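ingest -> validate -> predict -> emit
validate: passed (alphabet ok, no gaps, 282 aa)
predict: started
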Amino acid sequence: MASVPSGVLPVAKPAGVTSHDVVDRVRRLPIARGAKVGHAGTLDPFATGLLLVLVGHATRFQRFLMSLPKTYAATAHLGAVSDTGDPTGALTTTGRRASDSALRAAASGLVGEIDQRVPLTSAVKVGGERLYRKARRGEAFETPVRRVRISRLEIVCFDESEQRVDLVVECSSGTYVRQLVADLGEAAGAGAYCEALERTAIGSFRLEDAGGDRLVPLAEALSFLPERPLDPDEERIARSGRPVENGVDSHAANVRLTAGGELVAVAERRDGVLKPVTVIPG
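emit:
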């Protein structure tokens, strides 16, 4: 019996399709051969760019890949707001304009650790139900606030006459770029919505590397984690879920355990040992 395919497939998502649509398409490709398929981080239908599709055992390691920082190219339209934060919502002009100096001051104030209110269109659950479902019913409720990190918010080009600005955003996982654009517009005094959005990087994965048919092996896809090679006895121990000695000069919370260059498990550092928390069956 042929082995089940496993690995990460970088895909360039087009506009107008959901992340689930992309997963469904990959599921039908020969590269997946009936394996379980998922993804690591949703892109809205209007957005384009890099989507990491997980095939086979890679779906077990979704949370580690989802935690990677992201890079986006965004276009903000100032002087108008959207009830969804993007072009798919109801648009309202504000009658206000932003100056170059006000825009740059606003951008500077949004770099670093910031509190961000989760948009009503989010799939985050409140009281056990998705926010967007509550919003569709017109319910009044307080949306949660998240602490996120904006490492870079660069103004690439500002057309002051058209009130459009091209941005580069480097941010932590869990950041809502639509909300960041809305906050930028409000801070600049004009209001804004995200007119276009493209994800260009996830950790070391780059959009220009998408479009092929090669599954990135898990040991390579998770190379941002420190590595602890195992000898044959340790490999048997780890595959059974039992801890192995630390042996890694790193303070990282998670470590990948490998044997012969292949991923065996991701382990957590606990009381001086490495406890496997996600294991690939032998």
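The first strand starts at residue 7 and ends at 13.
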